[in-house]
Amino acid sequence: MTADQLSRHLRALPAFRALLRATEARFYANIHLPQPTLDVGCGDGHFAATTFTDRIAVGIDPQWQSLHEASGRNGYCGLTQAAGDRLPFTSAAFASAISNSVLEHIPDVQSVLNEVSRLLQRGAPFVFCVPSDNFLAMLSVSRTLRAWGMPALAVAYENFFNRISRHHHCDSPGVWQARLASAGFAVERHWYYFSEDALRALEWGHFLGLPALITKILFGRWVLVPTPANLSLTDHLLRRHFEEPLPTRGAYLFFIARKM
Q: Which alpha helices (DSSP H) does 171-221 contain, by range?
């Protein structure tokens, strides 16, 4: 693990996404992941390559283009194209698993949890993070609309933001604990992260970050000039959110579960 995850993620990602991923990356510094490790929904491989010193044994993802990008980042010993509920590995093949900001995008998430359980050895940790039951209500625009007496518009905005975020699940710890128990996991620890202020930075970053999307389309990367000088102001504005203590009520949830 590196000492400064925020600066590393800012060099390659839009600012709002870099803030979220860097915050999550910090948590893994104190989590032991026995090998071999399975990454469920590895995407383009940026998170693993930026976060972990050692390569992860296997990353799986249903998107071929994402796997192609991941193969160039050298964060995995192996990559497999597969859906999360039908993985081509023998039972108890892995000693740990992670899934970073993936499960919320899967409609039938219980089937994926069941499959991850099948692949893990008894006692193996399963580490993942998802948006919480507070996510929608903590969005700054919907909070403002409700304060102005426009709850219908607030709900419409929350539905819109869920669509652009491709969220199927923004659930409470209890809902996730029930899903995990059904799949044969016990929750060892969980915590909220990302305060209202941090979520505001992420929320507005979606809209203010549109130029980065154009850069990605035209040049194949989110940040054209990833130098410290170019990123110093962004780093300064986001660092207080990156370094904030864990809130009592947060927009996201981080779980450490264990296969029973």
A: 173-183, 196-208, 210-219
Give residue 109's domain range.
Answer: 31-132+170-195+247-260
Predicted confidence (pLDDT) per residue in 23-74, tens digit: 999 999 999 999 999 999 999 999 999 999 999 999 999 999 999 999 999 9
Per-residue model confidence (pLDDT) at position 144: 96
Q: What are phi and psi of 58, to 5 degrees?
A: -140, 135
Alpha-carbon distance of 133 to 257, in angstroms, equals: 19
Structure pTM?
0.93
Domain count, the chain: 1
Sequence-distant (≥ 6) Cβ neighbours of residue 103 within 8 angstroms: 40, 41, 109, 112, 113, 128, 130, 169
Cis (ω within 30 of 0) for the bond into 14?
no
Q: Three-state DSSP class for 39?
A: strand
AA identity, residue 148: W
CATH for 260: 3.40.50.150
